[in-house]
Write a structure and sequence with these properties.
The complex is a heterodimer.
Chain A lengths: L3 H33 L4 H5 L4 H32 L6 H7 L2 H4 L2 H12 L4 H8 L11 H25 L3 H10 L3 H29 L3 H7 L7 H10 L4 H23 L23 H30 L3 H6 L1 H37 L5 H16 L5 H12 L9 H39 L3 H30 L2 H6 L7 H10 L3 H27 L1 H7 L4
Helix pairs in contact in A: 1-13, 1-16, 1-17, 1-18, 3-8, 3-10, 3-14, 4-23, 6-14, 8-10, 8-11, 10-13, 12-13, 14-23, 16-17, 16-19, 16-20, 18-19, 19-20, 20-23, 20-24, 22-23
Chain B lengths: L1 H19 L9 E7 H4 L5 H12 L2 E7 L2 H11 L7 E6 H9 L3 E2 L19 E14 L10 H6 L6 E4 L5 H14 L3 H8 L3 E5 L2 H9 L5 E5 L2 H8 L5 E4 L5 E11 L5 H11 L2 H4 L2 H5 L2 E2 L9 H4 L7 E2 L3 H20 L2
Parallel strand pairs in B: 1-2, 1-3, 6-7, 6-8, 10-12
Antiparallel strand pairs in B: 3-10, 4-10, 5-8, 5-9, 5-10, 5-11
Helix pairs in contact in B: 5-15, 7-15, 8-15
The chains are: A mainly alpha, B alpha/beta.
Chain lengths: 547, 339
Amino acid sequence: MLGRRQRLTGFLGGAFSLVAIGIFVGVAILALLHYGGEGGLTVLFSDPLLLSVLRFTLLQAALSTALSVILAIPVARSLARQTRFLGRMWVIRLMAVPMGLPVLIGALGLIGIWGRQGLINDGLLLLGKAEPVSIYGLGGILLAHVFFNLPLAARLMLAGLERLPSEYWLMSATLGMKSGAIFRFIEWPALRSLIPGIAGLVFMLCATSFTLVLILGGGPAATTLEVAIYQALRFDFDPERAVSLAFLQIAVTALILVAMALFPAPAEHGKTLGRPPRRFDGLGLKARLSDGTALVAAVLFLTLPLGAVVVAGLRADLLKLLTEEAFLRAAATSLAIALGSALSALLLALATIHAQTVISLLRRPSLTMKGISLLLSGVSSLVLLVPTIVLATGWFMALRSMGDIASFAPAVVVGINALMALPFVMRVLAPALATHRAATGRLVFSLGIAGFSKLRLIDWPLLKKPLLTALSFAMALSLGDLGAVALFGSEKITTLPWLIYNRMGQYRTNDADGLALILGLICLLLTLAGTTGAQSRKDDVENAGPV
Amino acid sequence: MISVLSGCTHLGVAAIAVLSSVPALAADKTLTIYTYESFISEWGPGPKVKEAFEKTCECQVDFVGVADGVALLTRLKLEGDASKADLVLGLDTNLVAEAKQTGFFDVHGVDTSAVKVPGGFSDDTFIPYDYGHFAVVYDTQALKTPPKSMKELVEGDPSQKIVIEDPRTSTPGLGLLLWVKSIYGDEAPAAWQKLKGRILTVTPGWSEAYGLFTKGEVPMVLSYTTSPAYHMVAEETERYQAAAFSEGHYIQIEVAGLLKNAPEKDLARKFLKFMLSPGFQNTIPTNNWMMPAAPTSEPLPEAFGKLVSPSKTFLMSPEEVAANRKAWIDEWLAAMTLK
């Protein structure tokens, strides 16, 4: 069923992705290796603390991942099942806010609730419990990682559940299936195919977590590899050691990712009439009660710390902040970088997915083709493992002979943020595109529609929603990022998180709180763009004609 | 939704235009100064310093800001000989030896007799422009009896917590490490092990630590003797105070230096001289919240009279710090991770 042209564009797209990502990461690492000279691994393994650092990194990441993913299941399921309660859309939108929040601000919000002077301990004190709950140590790290990653996992799972054909729900209702059976036969199989990917993503985010681990870890006993890399580059300026540490991190986490990849591949996507899903299993009282409990718990868990951010932010002079030139510049810079990196990530993801699809459809794919496909899926995730500071420093080294580095800074930051967003974008788009192809592929082929008209009539109306979701995901992620800018930062490129840290460094915590609130609201606004598509989905389907 | 997106695009286009615009040259000569970000922010000394110096030099001052002193040195190492900088402003004495090792800096040749810093730091390459003593800053509403010495801090009530910074990632963290080392010497690991019980958490940098402190999460934080001045002057509150330690305090002296390859060397020397004049020094107390290193033309604000004035100042030589930093950090790590 593959035309010659499709095959060609597929290969070209795949090659483009591989080359683009390869060059971007490769140049940075080569530049650092070149500067660092040789020697390398012996330095690394003579470090007596390395083993305990590695152990702690993996332990906290594994626990954080397990908790985030397991707790996300009931949340996603409740959201999928209760399709029409008041404010549902807002709960989903809210879930994108932690992603965009600078880590420090999120941590302060969490501490406002769970900290020594926080709501929880105040409540416990009222109940006569004297010993405060401490969020410093492994517990705090886990709590914070769940706060930042559960919403992400839940949103990705929800997207998976919403892709299930509406015929399933009709059928299950006709058969009188109970909630347990529905979970076992419909929902779990869909989730099971998503979980390894989601878990891998969350695991990588937790493994490279740095500020959170340091703030909430309590002391150097809780140290991750990322700290060691940061120290090697920033304090000691020892690129060789930094690159060795980065390779170690890549190697170890790659092993874990390979293990996850061994899980069964996603099931075939069934054909569907494309009706918007309407679920009948969430109507009963029992289902509504249990879903309600899960949702209220999740919303409280998310909103209380965000509420602390809002309360702190409202104490600032927001109007003055909003009209400051520094803010306007930072906001414009942040949005430009976010948009640029999100679009780049989208482009890379689409090319990668298309190439993988083409290869999977080949009747007899050669070993090389299979290799390329594997490489593509690896490369688009592995970039999360190369710490941003390594990428930024490497590019700095590579560009320094080219004159004014500051003028290249925006491009490099966009590139780094695009790479950071790529795995998320892939998680959103890959299943959606697969479903879309299963639903429309034969039809498109038989009608002979191709090129722009296919794009306009078939692809855009149906893919609008996942594309916008991916875009808003990627933009939120990039908006909250501090890492890449921190090295290149100069008066020419100041982003919002950078401005927030800057104000804190000048004793102006009040301003920083206000700016954090504004940044949170911008993230919320962005997800408006990413989720409004859902409401007009019915129209989209009708517009798409007789699909 | 579309309007939000198109709005973003407009902003994006605007930002790209802002990013790529090159500042027009107002004068024929440009002095490029690398410094830390907070120096040149709206409330920092930067804007005032720029204005004052440009009046005297028929030139334009261009600041390039990075995160902090450490990032400044890294940036120089990254750029190597290709650096466009004339001056670097914002290293501290602990970084001086390492900075000299790069070979990028030149002897300043400026008369520094006006400089008065405790501990009497003087150097042929780097000129001090301000200083501050590290101190435990406490919240008077949460802590009635602050520690009066390092010994009391180390051995005091473990339920009264303190937040400190990580010496691996920040200069205040390194400052505390050197402070404890100065007082305890070889006994430092034992002191850290005792202090460990009082430490709520260790943050990557000063901002995170001070944020936890002002949010009321912890009654004590490692900061500077000058921190209370900010709260007294800008917020008109005496709630936050520094604890005076009987053993004495470790000092952080901020310095500036001239680059060998500076395109405008004469201008840079002129700026170094200007740094020690009131035109520069007047901006330090209430913009950088540090103590001026040379005379100001006006007396310091009243609040500065209420600050802790350390009875003794600790300062290790840059060479000693450079030679021992790694070993001492390892020692700290071992003591802090020990069960």
